[in-house]
Design brief:
By secondary structure, the protein is mainly β. Among the domains are: 78 residues, Thrombin, subunit H (Beta Barrel); 82 residues, Immunoglobulin-like (Sandwich). It is 1% helix and 45% strand. It is built from 2 helices and 64 strands. It has a 4-stranded antiparallel beta sheet, with no helix packed on it. Strands 2-3-4-5 form a 4-stranded antiparallel beta sheet, with no helix packed on it. The protein is globular and about 90 Å long. It starts with 27 loop residues before the first strand and ends with a strand.
């Protein structure tokens, strides 16, 4: 339920327009996976590949690769078809929800076309399956029929409902042959004269073949179609019927004619036929160097075959050299659905395992882990992680970032050193235990939240067992703590994240018992749960906890937000009580994030809170929660999804990494951690050139530093006090007007005046 209106600040530069987001948006960055190829298209010198929700193209002449994603204005929804019009130099992207985005390759501008989304049709039949161009019109095959789209005016024309009595039917592909438009549908192949001005009348469409048909295309002087059983047919113009000529071993996923060849794609094979329908090349998945390859589509440019795969990206192969294969996919994470991540100033790690809202990890997935540093992405495949499945958390040792622990919500705890998996801790070689209520022979070790304490010990939570809290000490020894003394039912409990405060108290989020506090120095457990006398949580299902700079515990539940005013109350109070944050909305008292499913909370260097939700996007609120600074969604930002899985912040740069269900993006905030002194203070960008539209950042500050900016004559134009390690200046004189070109002096001083620093910045208008 959304209740915040008045206090929500929507960043104007990020507002969605018909042309998409600004191409010069410097605040956001995308880290997308391009491995899941949905469709390919081509020009004479380039191949265009559509992945799950992003595009990339490779120029076959220069070998240059260009990517386009939500940062550039694409939707985060799932792409289902792509087509490049050579005549109009436009690339058309079709989505499963009916959205069309037109990319003008000349200037890179994007146009969102929502006519199909707006049609009064069930939402589950608006998927776009194929584009066919004829005489300046793109005929769009959809799950309900065919729509005309004018590539010159970029306007929709007629819609054809060609099923019996004008019913909606799934149209998979269309083609033009001898003056007729042919449509391969789930209810036969239907055709009508392309010059008929009344094609909106279903009576004008004739059924040529019955049954379900996956595809049809014109190749040379013939018309071909493939039925749902993988039988290739050729059209006989004399009898007006299709005759079967080749039976494939699997159903066809893609059919196209290009570069003088007919190309048929099945899950395991690519078949390439010449104009006489002689098989000139067959490529099977077993020939590809990558493991577990599944094909989705293929096309040809020049002498190169470009093969789309389900999880291995785009593979290029020579048409003439049988053993030449090259993966040309832009490097990125293995998948877009990153479930959890952790970052340091130098590195980011990501994992892809998951579980449902009720912590069910089934069906188990097998995706490995990924690492990003200045050299790019390193993807460690499942084959190297000793069989660890459903990896749901990643924890970097703060004392040694070359040592990383990955939590498997089924297999135990994976230790990675120097980018190499070293050991999988499980019930045979550690203090970890399998759940036992299924039976003694079933091994299921559900490790989730992990965190290092100040002494370098790793605290580990394991769900649905008696001894759910464990610690791996620096000497390699394990110690367990029985949780049945505080949990209502330990074998039914699941753990979310874990946090440690300045007193060494561990705060555990649980699925049925709220928040559990534990400090081994006193061996005491305490609980914050529902009810005014038991902790005042809105629900006992807590997903995440975070300790802020003021020693407050922020608690994210599946039904809203609570804050424990002081973590020190663990030592002082028998029953701790958490409170909602009350804000004024239209002069009415409202609860901040009322009944929101909160998935994660991250605290930045200025003590602001970044709060992720299960379906409402991302919130940034002030240190006390009274001001909502940003509320980012798919409608006003490059977020590819409103489902926020995890958030983490680079404390040095302030970059906020946001893992969503549809991809990883980052927002370049200014709230960095404060420094100990001013020796590392710096200004960027410097100089500020005319084309730059962003703000000037002064970074490397100590907390509460006073910053004054003057012109060369000593006239004050800006003054502020830092909260954290970075401030930004919009290059105006106190927000009134843009300052003129010239050199500006930046005077930085500590709150007590003992330490000072002077910097300069040049502004060029």
């Amino acid at each position: 339920m959304q209740i915040m209106k008045k206090n929500v600040f929507y960043l104007l530069l990020l507002l969605s327009t018909q042309l998409g987001f600004s191409q010069n948006n410097l605040l956001w960055q995308g880290y997308f996976s391009y491995n899941e190829i949905k469709d390919v298209t081509e020009s004479e010198t380039a191949v265009f590949a559509a992945s799950e929700n992003a595009l990339f193209s490779k120029n076959t002449t220069t070998s240059g690769i260009k990517t386009t994603n939500t940062i550039d204005g694409l939707s985060g929804q799932t792409i289902s078809a792509v087509y490049h019009s050579v005549k109009f130099n436009k690339t058309i992207v079709g989505y499963e929800n009916g959205l069309i985005i037109v990319i003008n390759e000349l200037d890179g501008s994007l146009l969102n076309v929502v006519d199909i989304i707006s049609k009064q049709l069930p939402s589950d039949i608006k998927k776009i399956n194929h584009f066919m161009e004829f005489d300046g019109i793109a005929y769009v095959s959809c799950d309900f029929g065919i729509v005309q789209f004018n590539l010159n005016t970029l306007q929709f024309g007629d819609t054809y409902f060609i099923g019996d009595n004008g019913a909606e039917i799934i149209v998979n592909q269309t083609t033009l042959f001898n003056g007729f438009i042919y449509a391969a549908t789930n209810q036969g192949i239907r055709r009508a004269s392309i010059t008929n001005v009344n094609l909106i009348d279903f009576n004008q469409w004739t059924t040529i073949a019955t049954g379900g048909w996956s595809s049809t295309t014109t190749f040379g002087t013939d018309l071909y179609a493939i039925n749902n059983f993988g039988f290739i047919h050729r059209f006989n113009s004399v009898s007006n019927s299709f005759n079967g000529i080749i039976q494939l071993s699997q159903p066809a996923l893609d059919l196209r004619a290009t570069a003088g060849y007919l190309i048929v794609t099945t899950l395991n094979s690519i078949y390439i036929y010449n104009s006489q329908m002689a098989l000139v090349r067959q490529i099977n998945t077993g020939q590809i160097p990558e493991s577990n390859v599944a094909f989705t589509c293929a096309t040809i440019v020049g002498d190169t075959i470009f093969i789309g795969t389900k999880e291995n990206g785009l593979i290029a192969a020579s048409l003439s050299l049988a053993s030449s294969f090259e993966n040309i996919t832009p490097i990125g994470p293995s998948r877009n659905n990153i479930f959890a991540l952790q970052t340091t100033p130098n590195v980011l790690w990501a994992v892809y395992g998951d579980y449902s809202a009720d912590y069910n990890p089934y069906p188990l997935n097998s995706y490995g882990v990924s690492k990003l540093n200045e050299s790019g992405w390193l993807n460690i495949p499942y084959e190297k992680v000793f069989g660890a499945q459903s990896i749901t958390r990643i924890t970097i040792n703060p004392s040694d970032e070359n040592q990383v622990y990955a939590s498997s919500f089924f297999s135990g705890l994976l230790k990675i050193e120097n980018d190499e998996p070293k050991i999988l801790y499980n019930q045979t070689n550690s203090g970890l235990e399998s759940l036992t209520f299924v039976g003694p022979n079933y091994i299921d070790i559900r490790v989730n939240g992990t965190v290092f304490d100040k002494s370098g010990n790793l605290w580990v939570t394991t769900s649905r067992i008696k001894n759910g809290l464990k610690v791996l000490k620096t000497n390699g020894q394990w110690q367990s703590y029985a949780m049945d003394v505080i949990l209502e039912s330990a074998i039914d409990n699941n753990f979310g994240t874990i946090a440690i405060d300045k007193n060494g108290t561990k705060w555990l989020s649980t699925s049925g018992d709220g928040v559990i506090g534990f400090n081994e120095s006193t061996s005491k457990f305490k609980k914050i749960t529902t009810g005014p006398d038991a902790g005042n949580l809105p629900i006992s299902n807590v997903r995440t906890v975070a300790v802020d700079a003021r020693n407050q515990l922020w608690i994210g539940t599946t039904k809203g937000l609570r804050v424990l005013p002081n973590v020190g109350s663990f030592q002082l109070e028998d029953q701790m009580t958490a409170n909602p944050i009350i804000i004024l909305d239209d002069n009415l008292a409202q609860e901040l994030l009322y009944e929101q499913f909160i998935t994660d909370i991250a605290v930045d260097g200025a003590n602001n809170k970044w709060i992720g939700t299960a379906d409402s996007g991302l919130f940034l609120v002030s240190p006390n929660g009274q001001e909502t600074k940003y509320h980012f969604t798919i409608n006003n930002s490059p977020l590819p999804s409103n489902v926020i899985n995890d958030i983490d912040i680079n404390s040095t740069t302030g970059e906020v990494f946001i893992a969503t269900a549809k991809g990883l993006v980052s927002f370049k905030g200014t709230a960095t951690s404060a420094n100990d002194d001013l020796s590392k203070a710096y200004v960027y960008p410097n100089p500020v050139r005319p084309e730059y539209q962003g703000t000037v950042k002064i970074a490397g500050l100590i907390d509460r530093a006073n910053v004054k900016i003057t012109d060369i004559g000593g006239n004050l134009v800006y003054e502020t006090t830092s909260q954290g390690g970075t401030i930004e200046w919009d290059t105006t004189a106190f927000g009134k007007y843009k300052v003129a070109s010239g050199v500006y002096m930046i005077f930085i001083s500590a709150q007590d005046g003992v330490e000072t620093k002077v910097k300069k910045v040049m502004i060029i208008r």
